[in-house]
## 1
Amino acid sequence: MAEKTTPKITKTEAEWRQMLTPEQFHVTRKSGTERAFTGPNWDNKDAGTYHCICCSRPLFHSDAKYDSGTGWPSYHSPVEAGAVTEHKDRSLFMTRTEIRCADCEAHLGHVFPDGPEPTGLRYCMNGTAMSFKPDEEDG
């Protein structure tokens, strides 16, 4: 059986600018980076899911979040396979692996091979690129 594909979410630059704050637009649509220790939820320890600020796709769950000491939200793995995509980034005179939202191509951050188990990866994300939704209370 063929794998189901979802069409990419596309908007014009004007549409993205209208729905995002200037900082969110800079980070997600222009591959910017927020300053360390300044973005939303970098130190959030509540249980919940982090979603793409542009399209609301679930990206990372708090169970995978850890304090990397970098000042950016860091995770050892996405919420599910296929939530994010990897792209070569050769900016700043180095080669890194950029992470984007699989649905809308929003720039989220980068992944590095220096994270904890179980994956050994550190998804170092911009908090500005994500919103947080707490887990619902049982009962």
## 2
Amino acid sequence: MPREPIYKHMSVCPYTISRDESVERARRFMHDKGVRHLPVLDEGVLVGVVTERDVERIVARPGVDLAHTLVEEAMTAEPYIVAPDASVARVAADMARHKYGCAIVVEAGHVAGVFTTVDALRVLGKTLNGASDPVGPRR
């Protein structure tokens, strides 16, 4: 299973957000959809990723108005990007080595999916426990 391509374990067609949306909207959207990572687009082109942790860092700043703070101010501008055929083993190893919370899967210049640490743990659980899925299905 670790040698399988990442596309078999990613969240397909992930939610995205525009760089010029407010951090408040990103925060609400993540909460409503139950996600912790949002690829950030500018006219359809991936320009970053904003995470729950990024949002919380902005929230912690004194005097910040989340409704008037843009996602581009909170996002990571150079997310970890992989191709759909990248191996789970390589992606998980890179994520661990660099302490990335997710990998953005890009195909033909478009966001195809997101592979998170939870997805990596799901693969680990399946590998250790055989065919059963101790975490449950992906969204």
## 3
Amino acid sequence: MRTGLVRSDIEGKIRDIVRGLYDVIPSGVGSSGAIPKLSNSEERRLLQMGAKWAVENGYGKESDLDFIEDRGVFKGADPSVVSDTAIKRGLEQVGTLGSGNHFVEVGVVDEVYRPEIAAALGLTKEVVVLGLHTGSRGFGYQICDDYVRRLLKASAKYKIDLPDRQLACAPITSPEGKEYMTAMACAANYAWVNRQVIMALSEKAFCRALGMSEKTLGMQLIYDVCHNIAKVEEHEVDGKPLRVVVHRKGATRAFGPGHPAVPEQYRKFGQPVLVPGDMGRYSYLCVGTQEAMRSTFGSACHGAGRVASRSRMIKEMQGHDLFAEMQARNVFVMAKTRGGLAEEMPEAYKDVEVVVDVLEMAGITKKVARFRPLGVVKG
């Protein structure tokens, strides 16, 4: 999201903003309470409607839908194939931030590489932005857990040899494959709602911290994109158009210019591709290319990638004053637990600048803008 503010407008207020975000967005494992507990029937409605449910319930505005992948709804979602356990876990977690690498980050545009594209996205140097990474929470996790068990049996049934149980699968046209896709659609719709609600809560936190109206703040969604999802798409294979299932794990769409799935306002330039880095350096906004359509099924990475495991980071960060170390980088951080912060220290990640340079050299994306973090909320 971008705001109508520049860095000087929030000078001396970053701590107030981050504390405000931390107070209004429940975070961490099992967190709940962002909105009143849903009824079972209302959750099922949410799972079918996606982001439009959030807008109809006062979280964001209708125009947001134009800047969400697939307008925030994965069609064909069927709550009847979702377990009661998953439904129960989802009732209280809408509008909550997960643990691990999930975050809400206040940043500023500190570099613009392609001014014409950046202007189309509403970005210039010094503009204050808000980045958000979270998904379908315990609801999606439970769906995954349920279907890994089911698809392990299906793999044996269809005589599919698995090198790893996490690769459990079934033919897409099989009953098991079809039911998984409809259950996964429910998780995607839940995730879109979750992010939409958090965006609305963040807007209110900004306004309270800065003592200004929503109109003055001018927060606008740039783009909301999926990751860790399978989609049926048409791509060119051996010179011919073919419908395929593209499963992007730790990856996101990077559709090129002219693609009808790209919002009309951005279509001339290609789909926005968000590549978060660690909380001490940078994050990037890029756009997809025609080369990505040819070489990666219109896909790019969705993050810098780890160089150290979570357990290793917890061990290595023992005795460190993590909050002071982040403050020394001019980043104010609030986190649910010290262990959670230790897992996500900058040293755990590759340098995202190198990652996006490789993407650009490969022709998969083009750099548009770089964001520098000022304040972060971690689950």
